[in-house]
């Protein structure tokens, strides 16, 4: 337990942190009315916006606690807190804070919708959101997507993609039953089928790859990919790079990377997004917001292994201002 104090005007909050969950500490005890007062004060008493108070409160609460604060805010001010946040914030900080006001599934569904909305498709986002999510996560995302947008996710994806790329995304989206079953009798059969559908022949039997990678459990596929090496001179990722190109290649690679080590995949994505002088803010925001209550602590660990530098230090070097502050707070500390 650590002791925490927020001072707003002459009003102090004293609360206790619980044991850290994910990358930030969720309060086991916190005062909703006082938290609401802290945010409400700066909108209504001083007119100006205190971004640091907003960051400090909203990044250190769970989604359910943030929703309670929003409910209390509306009771007190007769205004919607999300609308108030939209009016008070802008740019990348606004994107992070508004993202935090959604559940993980709501955020993922909104990102998918955004990737296929309007002219053109943001394939990078669509691939990440569909190919990196587990069957269980996709079941919830589909439910929330229909609730939010009154449409079936599969139909929207089908209308905005084509060919084998569309077939793969739809096969993944249609998975309904999360499973950890390993069918030991099929491990060798599946490994051989993947080899014979790709590297062994001229051209690629993409349908076979899609069937195996969308219908088998993650533990099963991990063993299949290991067995695959006894048939092919290349591992599964190398085989994908040789056999397919474009969005289909990126999709299969994302799948295999996540099957093998999902947190390492996200660590790689973050590393790539912060290679230049400035960060690719959209990618960094999406990963940090969507994984902060899922597995960001593990992603931090993988990031340090890959880069010999912590995620916290890298964010500090490649971002600035309030955007930097909100990301560092969500990151939860240095390693």
Layout of SSEs?
Blueprint: E1 3-8, E2 11-17, E3 27-29, H1 32-44, H2 51-58, H3 63-77, H4 81-88, H5 91-100, H6 104-116, H7 123-131, H8 135-149, H9 153-160, H10 163-173, H11 184-197, H12 206-215, H13 218-228, H14 236-243, H15 246-273, H16 281-291, H17 296-307, H18 311-318, H19 321-331
Antiparallel strand pairs: 1-2, 2-3
Can you offer a commentary on this structure?
It comes from Oncorhynchus mykiss (Rainbow trout). This protein has 335 residues and is mainly alpha-helical. Helices cover 67% and strands 5% of the residues. It is built from 19 helices and three strands. The chain has helices at residues 32-44, 51-58, 63-77, 81-88, 91-100, 104-116, 123-131, 135-149, 153-160, 163-173, 184-197, 206-215, 218-228, 236-243, 246-273, 281-291, 296-307, 311-318, 321-331; strands spanning 3-8, 11-17, 27-29. A three-stranded antiparallel beta sheet has the order 1-2-3. Helix 1 (32-44) packs across helix 3 (63-77). The longest helix has 28 residues, at 246-273.
Outline:
With 335 residues, the chain is mostly helical. It contains 19 helices and 3 strands.
- Biggest pleated sheet: 3 strands, antiparallel
Please report which band the strand proportion falls in: under 5%, 5-15%, 15-25%, 25-35%, 35-45% or over 45%: under 5%
C-alpha end-to-end distance: 19 Å
Look at the helices and sheets and give the structural class.
mainly alpha
Sequence of strands across the biggest β-sheet:
1-2-3
Low-confidence region ranges: 1-22, 24-29
Please tell me the overall pLDDT. 88
Q: Could you spell the SSE succession in H and E letters? A: EEEHHHHHHHHHHHHHHHHHHH
Q: What is the total tally of β strands? A: 3
Total helical segments: 19
């Amino acid at each position: 337990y650590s002791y925490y104090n927020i001072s707003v005007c002459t009003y102090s909050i004293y609360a206790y942190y619980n044991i850290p969950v994910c990358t930030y500490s969720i309060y086991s005890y916190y005062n909703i009315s006082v938290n609401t007062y802290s945010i409400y004060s700066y909108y209504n008493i001083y007119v100006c916006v205190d971004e640091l108070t907003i960051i400090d409160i909203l990044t250190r609460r769970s989604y359910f606690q943030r929703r309670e604060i929003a409910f209390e805010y509306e009771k007190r001010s007769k205004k919607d807190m999300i609308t108030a946040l939209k009016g008070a914030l802008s740019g990348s900080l606004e994107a992070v804070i508004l993202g935090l006001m959604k559940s993980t599934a709501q955020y993922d569904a909104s990102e998918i919708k955004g990737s296929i909305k309007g002219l053109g498709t943001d394939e990078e986002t669509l691939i990440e959101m569909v190919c990196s999510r587990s069957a269980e996560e996709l079941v919830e995302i589909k439910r929330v997507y229909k609730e939010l947008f009154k449409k079936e996710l599969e139909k929207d994806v089908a209308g905005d993609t084509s060919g084998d790329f569309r077939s793969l995304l739809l096969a993944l989206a249609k998975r309904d039953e999360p499973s950890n079953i390993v069918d030991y009798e099929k491990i060798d059969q599946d490994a051989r089928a993947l080899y014979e559908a790709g590297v062994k022949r001229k051209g690629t039997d993409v349908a076979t790859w899609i069937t195996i990678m969308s219908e088998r459990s993650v533990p099963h596929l991990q063993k299949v990919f290991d067995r695959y090496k006894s048939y092919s001179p290349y591992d599964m990722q190398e085989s994908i790079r040789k056999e397919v190109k474009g969005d289909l290649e990126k999709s299969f690679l994302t799948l295999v990377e996540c099957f093998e080590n999902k947190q390492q995949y996200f660590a790689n994505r973050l590393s790539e997004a912060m290679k230049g002088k400035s960060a690719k803010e959209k990618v960094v925001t999406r990963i940090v917001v969507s994984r902060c209550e899922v597995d960001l602590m593990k992603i931090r660990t993988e990031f340090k292994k890959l880069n010999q530098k912590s995620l916290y230090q890298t964010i500090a070097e490649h971002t600035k201002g309030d955007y930097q502050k909100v990301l560092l707070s969500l990151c939860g500390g240095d390693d």
